[in-house]
Amino acid sequence: QKEYYLNEQIKAINKEMGHEDDPGADAAEFEKRLEEKHMSDECREKTSREIKKLRQIPPSSAEYTVVRNYVEWILDLPWDVYKESELDITQAETILNEDHYGLDKPKERILEYLAVQTLVERIKGPILCLVGPPGVGKTSLAKSIARAMGREFIRLSLGGVRDEAEIRGHRRTYVGALPGKIIQSLKRVKCNNPVFCLDEVDKMSTDFRGDPSAALLEVLDPEQNYAYSDHYLDMDYDLSKIFFITTANALHTIPLPLQDRMEIIRIPGYLETEKMQIGRRFLLPKNISLHGLKETNLSVSDNAMLEIIRRYTREAGVRNLERELASVCRKVARKLVEGKDLDKSFAITVQSLPSYLGIPKHRHGEMEAMPRVGVCTGLAYTEMGGEILMVEAAIMPGSGKVEITGKLGDVMQESAKAALSYLRSRSALYGLRHDFHKEIDIHIHVPEGATPKDGPSAGITLATTIISALLNIPVRNDLAMTGEITLRGRVLPIGGLREKLLAAHRGLLRTVIIPAENEKDLKEVPETILKDMEILTVETMDEVLSKALVCADPEKVFCRMDVNDVPLADTLLKEEFRVERRH
Ligand code: ADP
């Protein structure tokens, strides 16, 4: 009787406070909405069971809220809503070209997809993966694809996601449980066929809370994703009409099974001429209007644009270029407002550039001024695109210690050791005493010491640098090289050739030594770049040395495989290491 009394009191209080008192009201509304929804019979049955439950639980109980939220989520989802769009291939092509310069391969792939879609009623959505350095337009291309297809756009950044539940949702039993990000996003756009951009798939990590990439597998696999099960919903949801685009900076951190589901399109970074066009046609007009200026307020000469690209930015993409142009626009805006003459026009030339952007941040061309002993230029491939990597070695009297500095990773340290052992094994060939290393210390350093570096592809660079220092023969300064070295002096192929060659070209290094096995990759490098460059292919370390070291008759000194046959160019060698040869 006491309980009845209290319940009546609660009702009275609720009424007085204007709260909905009828427990059936929610349920009735949900039932009405359920009738209007198109969904599978199984889901409908389950939802209707939940709604029935709602009628039986007192509205004030905690469980009521849980069930109510659940039903609300289900009814809010766009189970059978597809955004219809008139597809016109030529128009789509115009839109893609309007937003981005170049990027032919991804654009072509999208247009092919659209063409097939007009012919076939239902096709499986493809999963594209755009891989490239930051600022090459991966995300903005995805956005423009959505515009070209006339679909909604969703972007979900996966950087740092380490909990599987963020993607797949929490089970309903947890307090405050929610569906995963995929389902949440679909609720937001209210349709089932958006363009879904999963940004930075390579930055996901795993920990004890499960592996988010495993959940993504199910989302992205066309064979499974028509019946995707979110932990919260606990019923199948069809994701197969979504056009998934993933972006990544590097492929090697994406788990292999995930890579397997995706169609990889590489965007390697832009050439100087492409950056010019992007700056002129896209970034400058965009920033002028973003900063409230008129086209007539600001003109940037071609040379000034080139100067910004060369000496104020050093990058594979165009993000810093955009930032610098924005900075110019800001300065002009301030001058306009201060001068109170809004029609004044400013011409930016190479001479006036420093007054807007300060002194140049980078040197153009990263060559040494002349061939030097113990300095060699290597090429590295990082997530930011290709980079030029100087390697230095110094020899001093000592007791056989080898020091390697410059924050090199394990692989690179090991390649330095391999290079050194290779040299010692062939010391007679170079006219060095077999125990030459006992009396010297070798210090190998890779400058920009604060940046961590790793990878096997600096092997031949390290070996060349050490030999140059030991033999006192300078290395060509207009030459860069990349290749992995084996203990027997073979040169193994490397990855990221295209990016590395772009970097060498940017740095004005026009001769590049590459492993012979990488010759096939040259077809991926733009013609305009290859035209300017001399590519030397090598199979052995001896060939590298004969091409890179500046000495009288390098072929004779280095290209001999037989250690016993050592007619040495004695004059080239350092006095103290020279072998006493007896015939
Ligand atoms: P990412 O996702 O690859 O790191 P974003 O998509 O954020 O790079 O692009 C950075 C900026 O560069 C954007 O403002 C974009 O409009 C611009 N951009 C990049 N590539 C191009 C291009 N080919 N044409 C026009 N603008 C571009």
Note down, in words, how this protein is organized.
The structure is a single chain. It is elongated and about 105 Å long. It has 21 helices and 20 strands. Strands 13-14-12-11-16-19-20 form a 7-stranded mixed beta sheet. The chain is 42% helix and 15% strand. A hairpin with a 5-residue loop joins strand 17 and strand 18 (491-492). Mean pLDDT is 84; it is low at 561-573. Helix 12 packs parallel to helix 14 (319-339). By secondary structure, the protein is an alpha/beta fold. The protein binds adenosine-5'-diphosphate. Adenosine-5'-diphosphate is lined by residues 100-103, 134-140, 247, 278, 282, 317-319, 322.
TL;DR of this structure?
The protein is of the alpha/beta class. It has 21 helices and 20 strands.
User: Which strand order do you get reading across the main beta sheet?
Assistant: 13-14-12-11-16-19-20
Radius of gyration: 32 Å
Using the alpha-carbon principal axes, give the shape.
elongated
Main sheet makeup: 7 strands, mixed
- Model regions low in confidence, pLDDT < 50 over at least 5 residues: 561-573
How many β strands by DSSP? 20
Average residue pLDDT = 84
Q: Structural class per helix/strand content?
A: alpha/beta
Helix content: 40-55%
Provide the list of bound ligands, each named once: adenosine-5'-diphosphate
**Helical stretch tally:** 21
Span between N and C termini? 120 Å
Strand portion: 5-15%
